[in-house]
Amino acid sequence: MTPDDLREAAEALAGRALALPEVAGARAVAAYVSVGAEPGTLALLDALRARGVRVLLPALLPDNDLDWGEYTGPDSLARVRHGGRMELWEPAGARLGPDAVTGADVVLLPGVAVDGRGLRLGRGGGSYDRVLARLTAAGAHPALLVLLYDREVVAHVPAQPHDRPVDAVVTPSGVRRFR
């Protein structure tokens, strides 16, 4: 995809996500800053913030769990290298603890693919599996949305017994609900 294609896809993705009732009514959204080939999320983060939504972003911990911090604009981000693995944009401010995600009305999840059952394939680190388990343990029921490109919605992904389906996948061309 060209830089223009990527920008247009990010803007379309943001527009689709912002139009969802669960996002429109959210007071707090747990999200992430896209990296590499992931669909762009900064336009969405800035639009949420402009609406007065509290935006929580993850910070990767050494054990692959996630802590959370607040996004207050591009200046609130720091580029963090995690060992020899990857560089991520994370919140530069105070950490709120791994349980902060349980207060979100919506959790935006990254992924590699999602299938027709609503099962999400992640990158294999288990970070978001822990987030989903934490939400279940806390009795929290935020809307779970995956942000992907259209070609990443596939017929089937491998599943484990602990995998939990998401509520919907948002792509630049539309929204597909699973429950």
TrEMBL record:
Stretches of the chain forming a coiled coil according to its record: none
Reaction(s) this enzyme catalyzes, per UniProt: (6S)-5-formyl-5,6,7,8-tetrahydrofolate + ATP = (6R)-5,10-methenyltetrahydrofolate + ADP + phosphate
Domain of life: Bacteria
Co-factor requirement: Mg(2+)
SUPFAM superfamilies: NagB/RpiA/CoA transferase-like
UniProt keyword list: ATP-binding, Magnesium, Metal-binding, Nucleotide-binding
Name the UniProt record assigns to this protein: 5-formyltetrahydrofolate cyclo-ligase
The species this protein was found in: Streptomyces hyderabadensis
